[in-house]
Amino acid sequence: MRYLLCFCISFVPVLAMSAEPATPAHPIAIVIHGGAGTITRKDMTPGMEAQYRAGLKQALETGYAVLKNGGRSLDAVQAAIRVMEDNPLFNAGKGAVFAHNGKNEMDAAIMDGATLKAGAVAGVEHIKNPIDLARLVMDKTPHVLLVGEGAEEFASSQGMTLMPASYFYTQHRWDELQKALKEEAVGPGASAEQYPGTTARGFGTVGAVALDRRGELAAGTSTGGLTNKYYGRVGDSPIIGAGTYANDATCGASGTGTGEYFMRLDLTKSISDLMLYKGMPLAQAADQMVMHELVRLGGMDTGGAIAMDKNGDIAMPFNTEGMYRAYIDTAGHEVVKIYRDE
User: Fold this and answer.
1) What is the pLDDT of residue 328?
2) What topology does CATH give the domain 31-339?
């Protein structure tokens, strides 16, 4: 009996040592953009540059905090974009540009890379945070995209408060519209009169891509569109595969630029497809679409994109003078950039 007791006691630590080690959490990362376009140092005052960097930093760290606390990539993307929608510096939410008819028409989308579920809204005029409504479309309806009055009626049914048009008014955005209207009036004559919005321009879309501790990717995009766009125009941001896409097997991506080109190329999904079907690494696939295909279709200065793969590798190609962008990588390094030469 004494011998048997000793054997049992000595066997216990052997069992403990053979236990499976705990699986470490997946590394986390987040990348955001605040729009691409003609962004040069000569056009930027030190004070304005500081404000943009601070705005990017706030959005980035808000999203990263969600990931760090174990939150989902979807929630991190939504939180980061919401901060930029509330900042009048960016062309989304509060800072949305004006369409030709003097109204703010906003679009947004969000996509879950784990399930390929997505939600989007387009042409909404009274939604403080369009990214929140896009998330509700994904979570609470069988649909992907709701537009205009229907989207806003759904928002009300979900308890969202519709904002008055005055909330979205900012003087610098109004001045941009007036300048575009004047240019249109002295432009190509009858052509401009027949087709309002011929001087539509601007890139200031915002977006985010995140990777959480589950190894799941998500992407989101929000925009006010183009200054002086024809009312009712919808760009690439709420079009899944064009301006927004996420797939855990490949990458998450968000675009910024002239949406008509992004839609023709199905740009963000094309990045994913190049990875999936041609075996391209993220950086090569993103560069192929933004620096080659996008340029070939419309010339330079058409936009950029942010993308992240399942390993947390990040790509941020753009063919414009600059792109507001920032990231925190899997090593925890934080980077904020604006100009091309950074």
Assistant:
1) 98
2) Glutamine Phosphoribosylpyrophosphate, subunit 1, domain 1 (3.60.20)
